[in-house]
Amino acid sequence: MRKEFLKKTSERLLGMKKLLLGEIQDRLKGESEGGKDEGRDTYDLASDERDREINMILSDREREKLLAIDDALQRIDGKTYGNCECGCDQCEGEIGLPRLKVLPFTRLCVRCQEETERENRLIRRIDEPGPYRKLTGADAEEDSF
Ligand SMILES: [Zn+2]
Question: Which of 40, 55, 103, 109 is the most buried (most CB within 10 A)?
């Protein structure tokens, strides 16, 4: 993997993280508005206390995104970035650069991603209880006449 690309990607990831944290920070500030003049103290809080506070305000989606960003950054540091993590037989081993450009925190190559999605769809199909039926609702309506 080219160093230049890794550097650019890590900058991009850090930018995304900053943006996301900025939004959260704004939301925190918005919530604590109400006469209290503690805005600046938020930054001085012990970091895990602040993490906890940030965690509480995050949606699942945002939390996942933050984790994915941190994860990708760690993989860049650990020089494993761009390796597909699936380890199956048909794996291409490395995730293509065009794919990484579009999805900088992906952990699977195109092949494995498609394979995983197909499996997930299969599992979902088995789990589904079948189409919803609302027979009782229609019957009950007749009383209103
Ligand atoms: Zn793969």
Answer: 109
